[in-house]
Write a structure and sequence with these properties.
The chain is about 35% helix and about 15% strand. With about 525 residues, the protein is an alpha/beta fold. Strands 1, 2, 3, 4, 7, 8, 9, 10, 13 and 14 form a ten-stranded mixed sheet that branches. Strands 5-6 form a two-stranded antiparallel ribbon. A two-stranded antiparallel ribbon has the order 11-12. Helix 4 packs across helix 12. The two termini are about 45 Å apart.
Length: about 525
């Protein structure tokens, strides 16, 4: 798989047409099919605010059965206008799905804004994977089930303790850029995606902060406690947003919940020096243990590797003399025993094993490969002669799983009526993303600023133990270097669960994640 795509919980390959222009037929409200627990209300008349902008708004009512009693809630899907440029023209249509608990005091009820990563992922992973009232069913071990995957009531929905707003950044899901002036504006190219102006670190965080402000304004929720939730690159995004919301809109959030995030890219890829392989080591060891290649449980193997990573391993790497590799054979043998790889391979890579090589080689003797998103997920080797895999088996398998589930759910349960293809993972966005030209992207300063400016802000960073792409030790290292006043270290917590990047595909871990999120929100509101 293209190395740039290794940062996604993501991967889609189609360039999609723009949404059709609003017309008389679009303005007619359409009733969603009656497949909900309760009869649905017909969508409200199509909004045409802002010079003809078509929100395509749909409102439906539902109940979520829970052991403690049913939750009655309202779901609203709509496009929000994202304005840009000196004339403040609508530059994009941003698709959102909002769930609000019926009967709850609006000003007191928390609201969480939810994003996935990529860059290039829609919010469907967290939406139908962990937080929403419905979840996609996986096998008991978190692996992919046969298609089409079932859609189930979610007993661990975060709707029990916060309202939810799922947001698809421009170019993902149903969100699309809008070409202005027929593409004649200065600097525009006919073949350039009109959403590209939002495909950079700063433009993305600014745009998503504006969507949060717009949602709060339109829904009269300025007094509600506010939380940001982001997975993978989405964790990086919300750290940036927390600081930008203060600077651009005067909005302070109460908490951040980061799921499998990257906070500082220097901790997971080139630029971090010897620190990067040391931070990967425990996830490697846990994955090897899960596959029976090193002794103990994944947790035990990871803990042993944590102790070794910053002692014998880091000092061993620093002390290597490449002119005399034989002198380090004992060191290479210890590394091989720790992560379950052949000693010859560890020697060849001088003790620093790239993530894709680890996933490719861990189970080569069994004719299988591991996923970089979860070292416990394995698949048959599609090409044993290849040095590297052309795709990640778990990630690519999730694409039809979530795409089919969300498209059906949006149409049948939420009343969404559009012929625009749903882009779960946009390769076009990912390839077109503009990264900073110097240095590795980092949100550490933004996170530090938010913690400093908001003394009550709390942060939860959640990781899967066998996630190889954003290893949990990277976040532990970042968290240990955040400056917090004495007695406030608990404001930033790093939790580790069984599983990988999407640990919530395992029902017990999804329940633990929900419990930890509830605890953070309740603590932030005391």
């Amino acid at each position: 798989m293209n190395r740039r795509l290794r940062l996604l919980p993501l991967l889609a390959l189609l360039a999609l047409p723009l949404p059709h222009a609003a017309n008389a037929q679009d303005a007619e409200p359409q009733k969603a099919p009656a497949r909900n627990e309760q009869a649905q209300s017909a969508p409200k008349p199509t909004e045409r605010a802002g010079g003809g902008f078509d929100a395509q708004r749909s409102e439906t009512r539902h109940q979520l059965p829970l052991p403690a009693g049913p939750l009655a809630y309202t779901a609203v899907t709509e496009f929000l206008p994202l304005r840009d440029g000196p004339r403040e023209e609508v530059a994009a249509r941003v698709f959102t799905v909002t769930y609000t608990l019926d009967g709850a005091p609006r000003g007191q009820r928390p609201v969480a804004f939810v994003f996935n990563g990529g860059p290039g992922a829609s919010s469907a992973y967290l939406h139908l994977g962990a937080l929403g009232p419905k979840v996609v069913g996986f096998n008991d071990d978190g692996s992919l089930t046969r298609p089409p995957a079932p859609l189930l009531d979610n007993p661990d929905s975060w709707l029990a303790f916060t309202d939810l707003v799922f947001i698809d950044p421009v170019g993902t899901g149903y969100s699309r850029g809008i070409r202005r002036d027929g593409g004649k504006e200065e600097g525009a190219r006919r073949d350039e995606d009109p959403g590209k102006r939002f495909w950079s670190v700063d433009a993305d965080s600014r745009a998503m902060a504006e969507i949060v402000r717009l949602w709060l304004t339109r829904n009269g929720r300025w007094e509600s406690p506010k939380f940001l939730v982001g997975e993978s690159y989405g964790g990086f995004r919300i750290a940036k947003m927390a600081n930008r919301l203060i600077d651009d809109t005067g909005i302070a959030v109460n908490g951040l919940i980061m799921v499998s995030p990257v906070v500082d890219f220097a901790t997971i890829r080139g630029g971090g020096g010897l620190l990067v392989p040391a931070l990967r080591l425990p996830a490697y060891a846990a994955s090897a243990a899960a596959n029976g290649l090193v002794p103990g449980t994944p947790e035990q193997a990871a803990e042993a590797a944590e102790r070794y990573a910053f002692n014998g391993y880091l000092t061993g790497l620093a002390g290597l003399d490449y002119r005399r590799p034989g002198a380090a054979q004992g060191f290479f043998a210890e590394v091989a025993r720790t992560i379950g790889l052949p000693e010859e391979l560890v020697t060849r890579f001088r003790g620093e094993i790239p993530t894709d090589v680890f996933a490719r080689e861990l189970l080569r003797g069994r004719g299988r490969v591991a996923s970089v998103y979860d070292g416990t997920f394995t698949a048959a080797d599609p090409d044993p002669s290849a040095a590297r895999l052309p795709f990640d088996p778990f990630l690519k398998g999730t694409v039809p799983t979530y795409t089919t589930a969300f498209a059906a759910y949006a149409h049948e349960w939420l009343g969404v009526r559009t012929e625009v293809p749903f882009d779960l993972l946009s390769d076009r966005v990912n390839r077109g993303w503009e990264w900073p030209r110097s240095g590795q992207p980092s949100a550490v300063d933004d996170l530090q600023a938010a913690l400093t400016l908001q003394p009550a802000l709390r942060v939860l960073i959640a990781h899967g133990r066998t996630d190889l792409i954003t290893p949990y030790m990277a976040s532990r290292w970042v968290a240990s270097r955040l400056e917090l006043p004495d007695g406030q270290a608990d404001r930033v917590a790093v939790t580790v669960y069984e599983g990988g990047h999407m640990m919530y595909t395992r029902a017990p871990e999804r329940a633990k994640l929900a419990a930890d999120a509830r605890a953070l929100i309740e603590a932030a509101l005391r």
